[in-house]
Amino acid sequence: MSLSEPHNTRQASGAAIRLLALLSLAVFSVACGDNDKNPTGSKDIVVNTVRNGHFNNYQAKTVGALAECYFSRPRWESLTGTDGNTYVNLSGQISYIGNPVNALLQFRISGSSWEINSFEMNDIPQNALLTSGLVADIIDECG
């Protein structure tokens, strides 16, 4: 079920699973790939830290594999923010309420781990609840 489908089409068991996924994803800590085998400093390595990582409660597929399934033409880039932190941006189109939107999911890198920092649709920041729903929907659709 995508974010574009109305909630009233879900079965009761699907709603319960979604609620559990939302609660379990409330904290966006993640397990990373094998970043410790690579030297630091390379932008490709920073991107691959997220791309090869997994969401905590879903180890079956990497974030990169899930992104390839869910986003239309996903694009990855790393940057250093004005706050000195390193970020990885995943951008592309997704469907929301039946309409294509430009989405940006930003991850903040912290040593050998990362967490979701923000989520935007059409350059409009979204709240933590919608961000949790996005992650749950990505796993539901592509996992």
Any chance you could write out the topology, listing elements then pairs?
Layout: H1 12-24, E1 30-31, H2 43-51, E2 54-55, H3 63-70, E3 72-80, E4 86-96, E5 99-110, E6 113-121, E7 124-125, H4 128-142
Antiparallel strand pairs: 1-2, 3-4, 4-5, 5-6, 6-7
Helix pairs in contact: 1-4, 3-4
Description of the molecule:
With 143 residues, the protein is of the alpha+beta class. It has one domain (7-142). It has helices at 12-24, 43-51, 63-70, 128-142, and strands at 30-31, 54-55, 72-80, 86-96, 99-110, 113-121, 124-125. A five-stranded antiparallel β-sheet has the order 3-4-5-6-7, with helices on one face. A hairpin with a 2-residue loop joins β5 and β6 (113-121). It starts with 11 loop residues before the first helix and ends with a helix. The model is unreliable at 1-41 (pLDDT under 50).
- The helix content, as a percent range, equals 25-40%
How many distinct folded domains?
A: 1
In terms of structural class, how would the helical and strand content be classed? alpha+beta
What's the tally of helices? 4
The major sheet is characterized as: 5 strands, antiparallel
Give the strand tally. 7
SSE ordering: HEHEHEEEEEH
Instruction: Please list the strands of the largest sheet in the order they lie side by side.
Output: 3-4-5-6-7
Beta content comes to: 25-35%
The stretches of 5 or more residues where confidence is low (pLDDT under 50) are 1-41
Shape: globular
Cα end-to-end separation: 12 Å
Radius of gyration: 15 Å
**Overall pLDDT, averaged?**
78
